[in-house]
């Protein structure tokens, strides 16, 4: 059912996050530099990046191995969901259900969650391995906690120690993705819904320290560091628009989990009409009332499954669907929240069916048929979605037709048409973006790339494109298009003679002067690589040197030192190497970088060496 989805391509954030992967001939120790120099999120997410290294030889030409690993992790997570369902069911039902029935329902919960169509945007979107691995550790923590809570009525220091270790495993998941910080809050929802009737209750101090304090500290840090209110400066929506939009979006997520259709599920949701939603008083009002009512029901009802499903789902959205200025809408944010919802639904329906069949055989059979039909519907939608994910043509068409208001969906089909050589249609799609979405730099970067492929399709003059780059709105497609032009123009193999190196440099320079492009590291590095190809070593080094000191990586410092060495600026080269050396901390960083630093330093200071021969650009 899921296998066809493995044959699709890379998408969106796959490119910037995986672009630093080393080539197939790089030894493993040296390749760890990618792991240490890829700062994403607060933790750097090294666990996820380490996992990508094992498929590095397949980047960027073969997505299949990356997606295969994702699918394997997803299946492991499905097994953990079944285990968690079994432990929860055993507590709620005690001796009411037979072990066989409980095992069947637990396996069913895991299966339903595995084929949940909403989860496919996590499994087949390669970079969301971060979510997959983070979720693995959260699920291990939840299962470990539930096992301890079920087996031991009264906790001694040993049980508290073991529970603390289990929770710690969940928090360790922040090194895959920061959402794992919600582990304690999710455990708290399970404790309230499932275990609150057990006597004696757990230590409130332990629960406060291990389950509540970590997430409170994260929000406190973000608030004090200005990353909540200050972070809205580069967003097109305000905090109030975000909050009212998320009140609607979270309920939409809920409906997509329970009643998915292929037309409703899509990777591209950047065209969400947040301004229209914010002005729709009735929609926002009903959504806020609905959220409040659901949570009130969950907190007050005696049905433990209903309480668990609702509280777990909303707790799982506390980090990404509240005040933090992230993008508004991504379906992969439901990967962990849907766990509690599906467990509660499958076990709750199983319990209800058992009671219904005892009261009336035919009613029980009808209800069972309806439930199986619902699962079958999930399977059908899942199978179709998997085939769409695995077919670049179908994926692009679905993005274009199902998300007409998405800039990224339009870019997706434009890129696809370019890849199959239909340049005229690609140009038509790209030209339509200005009238539909406004002027974005990524549109014109793709038009510049189109010029590399064909001279038969009219494109704007380079001077017009560069003028647009100076003021156009930011979008993620710009850098990837310019990087592709650079790759096509490598020395001794120029596959893009229609775009001159000077034009490429002018385009990068225009973007560096564009106030809408606030994060310029990659542009500075790209400029240095273009200059290095022209053997303009000093200019290449100075471009790297313009990266802010708080953002520059060790590898970028080493790169700048190499260029200064080639330019004969020995003192500046050694200064950058000392700066790089001062930033190596920990055994792993020293092993990875120190040898490289020593080699560059030896080349630079050697009295007999010809630096131009012994040190070469990447």
Automatic annotation (TrEMBL):
Keyword Signal attributed: no
Swiss-Prot/TrEMBL keywords: Membrane, Repeat, TPR repeat, Transmembrane, Transmembrane helix
Coiled-coil blocks: none
Source species, domain of life: Bacteria
Transmembrane annotation, as ranges: 68-88, 100-120, 126-148, 205-224, 281-298, 335-354, 366-389
PANTHER family registered for this protein in UniProt: PROTEIN O-MANNOSYL-TRANSFERASE TMTC4, PTHR44227
Entry protein name: Uncharacterized protein
Source organism (scientific name): Marinobacter gudaonensis
